[in-house]
Structure formats: structure tokens, C-alpha cells
Backbone:
């Protein structure tokens, strides 16, 4: 694999050179031709993994419990692996889950040298564990790491380490008695070099944990005072609730990412600054921010998810539309990519996939003219989530929900993906993980 194979197509100039330089220096096996310019550094090697069993295992929380909703309960073990600029990657460790040790001058604490991935492991209805397209997550994390001046690695070694952790903790934390459940996987890399100078960190830590997560895509709805938009919440005297996500469009004073920036990389620096706007949206009764860009209010992402609309053009063409990747504003979501590929393959004659810039005015006009069919967000955490309302410049735009809780196409796409993830459909995207019992 050459460095160009993992770089975003639109990265150019100084950023492109720096990312390529990082790959060539820290993971020379990814170079198409080794030129011997840099001293040989040890590369990430899952074959050197050591295992220390957790002798104080935790209790697995019940589904939908407060512990699960806290998103803070992790499994018994974690993967860790350190890197130094002098020696490269050390042997990775599968060890008991626990605290990390950092110096106060660690690079990540001052200069946000951090990146991460979001994945899930699924307990299938056939009793087997599966990952969903882990190769895509591995390549994306490689792009993110090199963009934030962290070391490179061979993507296949990343996958092997994820698989090792899942194979050990999967049996207990995703028991076969709970088919259709999942754990969230969070691979992370941070700069740990203990120096305050503004420079590339000379030390880094890669670690992976499994966390209990609730299903955010369930149509629980949001509280609303409008009696015309209600569903039975099933709770006596509970506030009426509207299904689907309610989005608050961002204002001109804040953007999530910008052309030529690093929106294409999964960096903590993309998320921290957005939390204040997200908190304000929830204070006002909305679920997420719909991030807009520029004077024309181009639609980019919904919270931390990709955003899709289904509409008819004035010429009558039915389209699935999402923002393009070309200017590096949009994160190339694995779910986003899968949605587009499945729709092109299975609904190509019915629904045209279009990746292009579109604005809030385009959306508002489609609503006014009755051409908007549905809208939904896609991502790892929120999966496929129907959108029911968007607030923009003092007006609420109602988004149709064909079956009361979702649009037609969102429901179809969601069912296709779930069938692959949970083993109802045999598909190369669903990668089976063989489990290792710790009771032996």
C-alpha cells in the first residue's frame, strides 16, 4: 500500500506532504518503494501481543439500565501500545481495563494531538460476533493519525488488535442470550510526549476499549407541546413526544469545519468546540445541531453524523442527496459510505444517489413545494435516525415520517444494514470474530 492510498483525495499542498512524510517515516512498510532515508523503526505488530487477565472482573449491566445510558461502563480488558520516535511501536498489550498515566506536560493535554475511531461489535441472531467493515475504520484512523502528527501503522494490524480484544471480552459482555445487542468500540491515539514546545509529539499511546452504549437510533422522540405531533410514550402522565430527531440549524457565528481544514479526520479537536452549541440546542428542546457553512447556509452534518435527504426534483427525479467530501469539511462516515453503496446497488433504478452541495434554502423550498420525502442522519452511534423537524431562522420545517416513526427509505436502508451487522444476511461487510473463552 502506498501513502497515497490512505490520503484523502482532496488533500494537497503542505498537508498532503506532511501526512505522506509521516507515513514514510513511521510505517515504512506502507511505502511503495523504500528509499532508506529514515532509520528503521519497529512497526505496529499484533503478533507480539501479550495478555494479562483481569483478576477483578466487573458485572455486566442490564440492557437499557442507567449504567448503560451513562456510557461510562467498559469491559474487563483494553488494548494499549506505546510508540516513541526513537524506537517505533512497542509490543501491544491486552490488559485489565484501567487508568492511564500521563505527565502534566503531555502533548495531548495542551495541543489536542488526539484522534479516535467509532466502531461496534454485534451479537448476531445466529449467536456469532461480527465487526462491520473494520478495514474502513482502520484506514480512516490512519488518515486521522497522520493529519494530527501522530505515528502511522499498518491498517491490518489495527484490525487484528481490535479482533483480539473483541474475541476475549465478547463472550461475557455480549452474551448469546442477548442477540441483537452491541458494544461500542473506541480505538484512540494520543500524543504523550512530555514537552511543552509546539512540535510533533515524540511519544504516543494507542489504546482500545469496549463500552456499553444505548441504542440512540430508537424512535423515542423528543418532548413537544404540539398535540398534533404526538405518539403514546407508554408512560402515564408523561409529556407527549414527537418521534424522530429535532435539529436546530446553526447560526452564522459558529461552524463545525471549514474548507481546507480537518473535518475529514476524526479528531477530538473537531468535537470539543461543538459541545457548547449542542448543549444549547438541547436546552431548547432539540436533539442535535444541523451544521451549516457560509453565507449560503450549506448543509454539512447533523451533530456528529452525516445528513441525508430524499426529495423529488422539480423534474420529478427521486434523489438521495448528501454533502460531498471534496472540500474536506465532511467526515467520510463508514455508515454514510455503506448507505450510498447499498442504495446504488439495490435501488439504483428507483433512487438516484447525489453527492453535492445543497443549502437550507434548497431544503426549505422543497418543503414548501411538497417535494421533500424524508431526511435522516447516519453514523456509528446514532446509526440511521429519522429526522422529523428542523428549526431554521425562526421557522420549524416539518419533515415527513411515512410510517409515523421513520421515512420509507431510511427504514429500508436500516433493515439492510442491521441484517448484515447481525448475521441475517451473509455479506463480506460483516466480519465474524471467533471467541476465546476465559473459563478454560
Residues:
Amino acid at each position: 500500500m502506498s501513502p497515497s492510498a490512505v490520503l484523502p483525495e482532496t488533500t494537497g499542498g503542505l498537508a498532503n506532504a506532511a501526512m505522506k512524510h509521516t507515513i514514510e517515516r513511521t510505517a515504512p512498510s506502507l511505502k511503495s518503494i523504500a528509499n532508506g532515508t529514515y532509520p528503521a523503526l519497529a512497526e505496529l505488530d499484533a503478533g507480539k501481543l501479550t495478555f494479562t487477565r483481569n483478576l477483578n472482573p466487573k458485572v455486566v449491566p442490564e440492557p437499557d439500565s442507567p449504567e448503560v445510558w451513562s456510557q461510562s461502563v467498559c469491559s474487563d480488558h483494553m488494548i494499549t501500545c506505546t510508540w516513541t520516535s526513537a524506537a517505533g511501536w512497542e509490543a501491544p498489550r491486552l490488559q485489565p481495563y484501567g487508568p492511564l498515566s500521563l505527565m502534566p506536560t503531555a502533548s495531548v493535554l495542551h495541543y489536542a494531538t488526539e484522534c479516535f475511531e467509532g466502531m461496534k461489535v454485534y451479537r448476531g441472531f445466529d449467536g456469532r460476533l461480527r465487526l462491520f467493515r473494520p478495514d474502513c475504520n482502520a484506514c480512516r484512523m490512519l488518515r486521522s493519525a497522520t493529519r494530527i502528527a501522530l505515528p502511522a501503522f499498518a491498517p491490518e494490524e489495527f484490525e487484528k488488535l481490535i479482533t483480539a480484544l473483541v474475541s476475549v471480552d465478547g463472550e461475557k459482555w455480549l452474551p448469546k442470550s442477548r442477540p441483537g445487542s452491541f458494544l461500542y468500540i473506541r480505538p484512540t491515539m494520543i500524543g504523550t510526549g512530555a514537552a511543552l514546545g509546539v512540535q510533533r509529539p515524540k511519544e504516543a499511546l494507542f489504546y482500545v476499549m469496549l463500552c456499553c452504549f444505548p441504542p440512540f437510533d430508537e424512535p423515542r422522540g423528543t418532548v413537544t407541546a404540539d398535540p398534533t405531533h404526538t405518539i403514546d410514550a407508554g408512560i402515564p402522565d408523561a409529556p407527549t413526544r414527537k418521534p424522530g430527531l429535532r435539529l436546530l440549524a446553526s447560526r452564522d457565528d459558529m461552524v463545525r469545519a471549514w474548507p481546507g481544514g480537518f473535518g475529514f479526520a476524526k479528531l477530538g479537536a473537531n468535537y470539543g468546540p461543538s459541545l457548547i452549541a449542542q448543549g444549547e440546542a438541547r436546552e431548547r428542546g432539540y436533539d442535535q445541531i444541523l451544521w451549516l457553512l457560509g453565507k449560503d447556509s450549506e448543509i454539512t452534518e447533523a451533530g456528529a453524523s452525516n445528513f441525508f435527504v430524499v426529495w423529488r426534483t422539480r423534474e420529478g427525479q427521486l434523489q438521495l442527496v448528501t454533502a460531498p467530501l471534496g472540500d474536506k469539511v465532511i467526515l467520510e462516515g463508514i455508515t454514510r459510505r455503506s448507505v450510498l453503496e447499498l442504495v446504488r446497488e439495490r435501488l439504483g433504478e428507483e433512487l438516484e444517489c447525489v453527492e453535492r452541495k445543497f443549502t437550507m434554502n434548497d431544503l426549505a423550498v422543497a418543503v414548501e413545494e411538497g417535494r421533500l420525502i424524508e431526511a435522516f442522519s447516519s453514523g456509528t452511534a446514532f446509526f440511521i435516525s429519522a429526522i422529523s423537524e428542523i428549526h431554521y431562522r425562526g421557522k420549524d420545517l416539518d419533515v415527513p415520517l411515512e410510517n409515523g416513526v421513520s421515512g420509507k427509505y431510511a427504514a429500508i436502508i436500516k433493515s439492510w444494514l442491521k441484517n448484515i451487522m447481525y448475521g441475517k444476511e451473509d455479506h463480506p461487510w460483516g466480519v465474524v470474530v471467533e471467541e476465546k473463552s476465559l473459563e478454560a
About this structure: The longest strand covers residues 74-84.
